Amino acid sequence: MKTSAYGWQYLELASQMAEMKDDHYKQLLALSTLLELLVEKGVLTPDEIKDKAIQMENELNRQLLL
User: Fold this and answer.
1) Domain that includes residue 8, residue range
2) What's the burial of 27, exposed, middle or buried (CB within 10 Å: 0-12/13-18/19+)?
3) 61 touches 53 (CB < 8 A)
4) What is the pTM assigned to this prediction?
5) Is residue 44 within 8 Å of residue 38, measured between CB atoms?
6) What is the dihedral of CA 35, 40, 46, 51, to 10 degrees?
7) pLDDT tens, N- to C-terminus, the chain (66 residues)
8) Highest taxon of the source (predicted)?
């Protein structure tokens, strides 16, 4: 009986992970679409996006090392 209970727990965990993966995909698609539109409309350039991403990553790394 324990094996069956663990089996259901793993199945539930796999289901939750699949939902998270789908949510992550949808969020990434929305973000990519927004960035593409901002570049197309001339609001931002790809280099500005790249530079800001590097700046934010460096700041995050700095904060993690504190």
Assistant:
1) 2-65
2) exposed
3) no
4) 0.71
5) yes
6) -60
7) 566 878 889 999 999 999 999 999 999 999 999 999 999 999 999 999 999 999 999 999 999 997
8) Bacteria
